[in-house]
Structure prediction request, 238 residues.
Amino acid sequence: MNRIETCCQNQKTGNFTPAKFLFTGREILVEIRGSLHTFRGKFAFALFLAGIIVGFLPAAGGAENRRELADRLMISLCFSNIGLIIMMSLQNHRLTYLLPVGRKEFAAMQIRKMAWVSMILLLIASAEFACADQRAEKFWWDIVAKAIPVSLGLSSCQIATVQPIKGSERNDGTKWPGCSIMVQSLDVGITFINLVSTGGFWSIPASILPALNYLISFLAIGYFYRKTADASLYYDEL
Prediction:
């Protein structure tokens, strides 16, 4: 009963309030806990842990080769991101949307999920950079220029699990799946290039690629929100 009252109260507030953000975090925890009872969820959890191990082993060894560290970190974040998203997408494979949810509210919920994925990936990347035994200047550059934009870019993959339309039907004229794949390819592509690049520190030429990563990531988030909010056939409209 308390959960129903909470849902009703959340529907009356804005879509991007701190309360809504925390409520989405609780929903993610419930979904992950439920997915761990399935083989699919256990396999995803194994991928998530494998990604963390792959990233921390060379970092803890104090790798001086930044290119090798970046390559390992890329593999680590990819595995962790895939495992995390699979665990969070149980509802798209096991459950049906039974509660009436508006299009804009549904789109905002997906963006909030992307924010949670980004925060978790940022925490993992920051911890791995911290264990790499490098100077403070390099560490903060890696956080600002790599960890934050890379986590933003990879979190957009969460949108690939969204099913705003029933089964394999397509929206009239929007072609949501094809468009989302094109934007994700651009977003994730610049993310990987930024992560594996080994340029200088705190200079204008070295900041071009991170700035481009930030810009494309934010544009992609806005694109996904608009596309999801404009989808014409939702479960609540069947």
User: Anything to note?
Assistant: The chain has a mean pLDDT of 77.
